């Protein structure tokens, strides 16, 4: 009788855990969607109306990290009786967070450099190739296995980038040189590669943490990653004399001084939401799922870009978008089949009749 009760308890406990995990995945995905769509649009609006400071926009990506003090403080307050559980980040994880933060700062600059010259419809499609780079780096770093479906997804997304590259001159903004447009194209692709590496690196740090990875630990790591990313941007801004130029740039901004500061503030909040969702999703699932969510948001970004920005959506973009979605569907279906196989094996390994 006791064995039956224990057998019934385990599935119930597992079901409860899976429901909480699914809820966290949903919440983090919403954070990514809101942050990514609104944040990218705001950054592009900044550049369209006279903004020129690329390191400033890279800084804005993670400058909202002090927001994390609130949930971390709440967690501390709940566990105030157990002092040993307050600081969960080990020295090894702190070093990993610092390295990942510095890489994220470089990645942020590459993305903002690309967005300063490329329409959102182009930059978002190129940024979606981070799924392909994440899959490649996850294979070597986290030992995720390639399947026919994941290989198909990588190839399709790369072909989509090639199509955009062959037709890049047809969508170049008026007055922008071919050299700058090409450089923005290349920098965005390199940024996607850096992003894929950082995603795989974050998951690897969780795997090799040496401690139980909890949501509190993830929040503390995210704080450190964002802090170091912000620090490298601050150093670059000091060297580039961006701080002295902010007030002058605000006065010359096409939408007015007040909207200039409002755009910077809203960008910081939106992009920090994206960061929280991204690292949270890796914690709840994997870096590859983060790449999938980013790829899925591409068509939504295209719609908002056409609605709110002076952008068109030509045939080559439709073709690249179709390849992106085809790659996403292929990868998602492959992961679905793998999960079904795991469930089947688990059921076969579990005795049906227990006394």
Automatic annotation (TrEMBL):
The record's subcellular location field reads: Membrane
List, alphabetically, the InterPro entries matched.
EmrE-like (IPR037185), PUP_plant (IPR030182)
Report the principal subcellular site: membrane
Q: What are the annotated GO cellular component locations? A: membrane
Q: Does the keyword rRNA processing apply?
A: no
Pfam families, per database record:
PUNUT
Q: Which UniProt keywords apply?
A: Membrane, Transmembrane, Transmembrane helix, Transport
Membrane topology according to the record: Multi-pass membrane protein
Q: Name one GO molecular function term.
A: purine nucleoside transmembrane transporter activity
The membrane spanning regions, by residue number, are 23-49, 55-77, 89-111, 117-142, 149-169, 181-202, 223-240, 260-281, 288-309, 315-333
In the record, the note on similarity to other proteins reads:
Belongs to the purine permeases (TC 2.A.7.14) family.
Please give the name of this protein. Answer: Probable purine permease
Q: Which organism is it from?
A: Anisodus acutangulus
């Amino acid at each position: 009788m006791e064995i039956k009760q224990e057998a019934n308890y385990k599935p119930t406990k597992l079901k409860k855990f899976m429901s909480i995990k699914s809820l966290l995945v949903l919440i983090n995905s919403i954070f990514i969607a809101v942050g990514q769509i609104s944040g990218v649009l705001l950054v592009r609006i900044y550049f369209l109306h006279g903004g020129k400071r690329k390191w400033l926009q890279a800084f804005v990506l993670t400058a909202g990290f002090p927001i994390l003090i609130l949930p971390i403080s709440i967690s501390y307050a709940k566990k105030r009786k157990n002092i040993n559980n307050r600081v969960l980040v080990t020295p090894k994880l702190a070093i990993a967070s610092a390295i990942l933060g510095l890489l994220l700062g470089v990645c942020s600059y590459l993305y903002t450099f690309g967005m300063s010259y490329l329409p959102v419809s182009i930059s978002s499609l190129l940024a979606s190739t981070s799924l392909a780079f994440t899959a490649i780096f996850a294979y070597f770093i986290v030992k995720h296995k390639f399947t026919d479906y994941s290989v198909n997804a990588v190839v399709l997304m790369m072909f989509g980038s090639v199509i955009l590259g062959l037709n890049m001159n047809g969508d170049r903004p008026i007055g922008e040189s071919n050299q700058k447009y090409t450089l923005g194209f290349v920098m965005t692709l390199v940024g996607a590669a850096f992003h894929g590496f950082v995603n795989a690196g974050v998951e690897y740090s969780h795997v090799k943490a040496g401690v139980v990875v909890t949501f509190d630990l993830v929040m503390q790591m995210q704080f450190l990653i964002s802090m170091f990313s912000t620090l490298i941007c601050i150093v670059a801004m000091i060297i580039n004399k961006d701080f002295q130029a902010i007030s002058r740039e605000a006065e010359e901004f096409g939408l007015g001084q007040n909207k200039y500061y409002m755009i910077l503030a809203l960008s910081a909040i939106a992009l920090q939401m994206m960061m929280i969702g991204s690292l949270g999703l890796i914690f709840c699932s994997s870096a590859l799922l983060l790449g999938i969510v980013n790829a899925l948001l591409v068509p939504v970004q295209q719609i908002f870009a056409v609605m709110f920005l002076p952008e068109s959506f030509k045939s080559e973009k439709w073709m690249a978008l179709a390849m992106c979605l085809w790659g996403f569907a292929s990868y998602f279906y492959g992961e679905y089949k793998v999960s079904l196989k795991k469930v089947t094996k688990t059921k076969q390994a579990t005795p049906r009749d227990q006394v």
